[in-house]
Amino acid sequence: MEANSVFFRIEKADMITNWISAKYRGLLVALIAGAAVWVMNQFGLFSLPGGWLYDRFVGFSVARSYQPHVVLVGIPAERRVTPGEWRRVFQTLQRLRAAQLVVFAPDETDAGFFAEAAQTPNLLLGRYLLDDQTDPAKPRLQTWPEAGAGIPYGIATLPLPEQGIYRTSPVSQRVEGEPVPSLAVAAARQRGIDSPRDSATGFIINFNQGRYSLPIIRLERLLSGDLIEELVSGRSVLIGPMLGLSVSGLHTPVTTDTTPMSTLAFQGHALDTLLGDRVITELPGWAVLLWLSAVTVVSLFVYQWFRVNESAWTTVAALVIYLLLGWAALRFLWIRLPVLELVTAQALIFFWVTHEKSSRMEREMRTMLAEMSTRLRTSALPPRFYDTPHHWEQLVAMVDQTLSLTRLIFLERVETDHRVREIQALRCSLDVIDERRRDYERTPYSTAIAAGGPIRLEEHYLAKSDLESEDQYLVPLIYSGEILGFWAFGVDMAKTQSRHQMESMAKDFSYQIAELLYHRRHWQNKEAEEARILNQYLCLQGGEVVHKDVHQALELMERRLSVQQSVFDGLEVATVLYDLFGRVMQVNHHLEKLMSEADIPAFDYTALDLLAALTTLDRETCQQLLRQVIMERNGLSIPARLEAFPERRFLLRIRALSYEESSAGPAIESAPFELLGVLFELDDVSPIHRLYSHKEKLIRHLGKRIGHSLDGLLELGAEKRAAMESSSLSRICERIQDESRMLREATVFLNKDIGAMSLQPFPVDARQPILENIEASKGRTEVSDIHIVADIPESLSLVMAEPEQLHAVTASVLDALIEDAAEESVIQITVEEKERWIRYGFRNQGFGMPNDRFQEFLFEDDGATEDYTNLRNAVHRVQSWGGSVEASSELGVGTRIEIKLRAFG
Question: Angle at which helices 111-118 and 83-95 pack, to 10 degrees?
Fold first, then answer.
């Protein structure tokens, strides 16, 4: 039990991990990329390129106007200064009000110097560290004479260079376990400046002021007294050796390989950086990590908005921004930003997102190709002519199915030769050709080529047939100026009505056959070229190339769409397809031409505009009809007229196009109401209308004649009734009045336009819809052993309803009862006529439901559910006809529905 619990916890943890990695994969990768670049930064992998870039920034950040805090006094490398000269130097600098005297690298054997230095205030000496021969890891201080014991000093040791470039200065150095400040730090402290934070790398010297920003005074000039107080007053004076044979130079961000910087100048820049509070600072590790994480996460979102080329330009722009930002931060804020780290993080996300996009695109293309190939295979497409090796057999079959030829033979041109060879024959063999040279540069081939079409052969090209009425023809197969072959055939002229028509058809066929052969040959050459694997790889087209398959599939789809568009344009019925918002999606040529002649802008009109323009209905009624088509899926047929053609009659059919489950695919998920659009078909029914007009005239004539006769009988009956006062005669007169009234009402309906019958109640058969629906539902009822018992009188009056909709209303009621009925139960249907009303009663034995819910589903707008949509539409339809619906349901008992419609007459 415990093992199962542990296994469950492990499995649950794996599920959570997989869910997080799937849902937040992009964020995790972005953060990991930022962390990886940060780790590389901490291990110093960017030090070499980062240092080079930093030097370039320093070179572009030189400040031309700068007031230094340090003055350099250079001593020639080979010159030895006497104690008296040192005294004069110190006195002169004190007289000029120097704030501080710093002597760099004094001679440890010069006791006189140390005696003078000990008596000079504000003096600081630079002291070397020497390697201990017994323990190199423990350096020792340079030995000084007794006179220098109390003089302040700082360590004058240089830092370790970064790839040969000196950019930093140490803060302190440990001597015998105690930290001793460096020369620049000690001098800054002596002047009351807080030293920078102690670190293993020291502090970064600010070279932004340029290499020659510190004034340099030669010792001889100082000894001569040729100095002004403004040059020295308030500044630290750093005295040390200049460049020479015994003094090597240093390479810094502001020097070149040929002119290095002296150690004196380097120490001066370090001290000037501290005195001016201009130390170059670097972002702490946590700040760098935050920057990198922010860059990777933001880039993750930004790159997904753009295409690959736009993302590449975005990366280039980000690189430029980082460079400008790094330079500006160094120039104005004295901050060294991790520019290369940011660029690397940005590039990593760019390449990763680009790779993901490419992978996703390839996966989607593969999926699309697979789905498209499946759909194409299930669409009963014929085999491709180009692919099959039996293309000649296909040509023979196509020709034989259309033309009544006695025999035929196809000949193909031999590549790189002027000869032809026999390929395929029908109802004969290849040996029946009498001509043996097969040279198409000679007759009869050359004659056929010159004629550019079929030629009748006077001499027998094929062996003579037993059919005396056979004529022989030879047809060249030429396309785009290229001779592809020949077609020889025989035809029974006794069965041919027109020689000219037969020759014209043969010429047309030859063009089509030649075009097929031409494209097949080019396709074969292309396939052969692609089969050369080495060439593909040399052209960087090796491996599996999905886009070629997609391109071929799209070409095939385009071909099919072109055929369908041609079929759509070729329809004799004027047709326009609208989307559900009434915008034109497609118009065929017939409607476009008809609307152009009627001066109606078909492309500018919405579905509502066109419906109002073609009918006499008001816009509100047109809106109701369109809603009926879209919401209830009811097709409409409406009479239409065009003012430009008053003598013509049209029938406008409107129907909603639904997606088929077999072909809709994922498109149905995003389609409102699961509909493709609304189709308008404008059919010219003028010939049918003219035929029906004769029938209408006959009906009107009979109506008038019978009406006049009945009116005469009524007048005669009234006279006789007054004289005889007979009750029987009164009843006869009343019956005649009823029949006369019914005749007048029927005449009104008979005079209505045929198309208007489907838009308003009309006298229709009350029995037929019920009987047809019972017959149509037999398959469903037999499965569940449900019996339908119908009590329908043989004689019923006509009922007032829309002819096409009465069938749908009764079908929806019957479907609902069958769906609710229990197995082996009975559904009772009764139809009766009472007091000029036709009552349809439906009752089943089924599951039922609470009656209040059933009433809500049928009669309350807020209670609509998808299962009761058809039944609710039926209720609304009956009410629009002036009828009524009563319904009830009881849980465990069943459902009862009663429909009452007005009878005609």
Answer: 30
Sheet holding 837-843, edge to edge: 787-791, 826-834, 837-843, 894-902, 884-890
Q: Look at residue 668 and tell me whether its pLDDT is greater than 60.
A: no
**Does the predicted model carry a pTM greater than 0.85?**
no
Region for residue 728 given its phi and psi (left: phi exceeds 0; alpha: psi -120 to 50; beta: otherwise): alpha
CA-nearest of 133, 78, 65 to 107 is 78
Q: What is the helix (H) or strand (E) element at residue 839, kind and residue range?
A: strand 837-843
CA distance 884 to 123: 117
Q: Which residues contact 175 (CB under 8 A, 6 or more apart)?
A: 129, 139, 140, 141, 155
- Please check whether residue 136 is in contact with residue 159, taking contact to mean a CB–CB distance below 8 angstroms: no
Q: How far is the C-alpha of 842 from the C-alpha of 249, rounded, in Å?
A: 112
Backbone φ and ψ for 134, nearest 5 degrees, come out as: -80, -30
Q: At residue 377, does pLDDT exceed 60?
A: no
Length of the chain: 905
Q: How many CB atoms lie within 10 A of CB 791?
A: 10
- Checking DSSP bridges between strand 236-241 and strand 70-75, what pairing results, if any? parallel
Beta carbons of 846 and 825 less than 8 angstroms apart: yes
What's the first-to-final CA gap in the chain, in angstroms?
84
Distances (CA, A) of 24 to 20, 108, 297, 361, 407: 6, 68, 12, 20, 72
Distance CA 585, CA 569 (A): 14
Is residue 297 within 8 Å of 31, Cβ to Cβ? yes
Q: Check if the beta carbon of residue 261 is closer than 8 Å to that of residue 252.
A: yes
Closest CA to 172 of 188, 184, 190: 184
Average pLDDT, the chain: 78
Q: What SS3 state is found at 35? A: helix
Looking at the chain, the number of H-run helices and the number of E-run strands are 28, 31
Strand partners, 419: 439
Closest by Cα among 467, 409, 455, 398 to 434: 409
Cα-flanking dihedrals φ and ψ of residue 903, to 5°?
-80, 155
Residues forming beta bridges with residue 485, ordered by sequence position: 412, 477
- The values of phi and psi at residue 422, to 5°, are -70, 140
Name the CA radius of gyration of the chain, rounded. 52
Q: What is the pLDDT of residues 150-164, one digit of tens each?
A: 888 888 888 888 878
Q: Which residues on neighbouring strands pair with residue 888, listed in sequence order?
A: 896
Q: What is the sign, positive or negative, of the torsion defined by CA atoms of 372, 378, 379, 380?
A: positive
- 3-state SS assignment for residue 18: helix
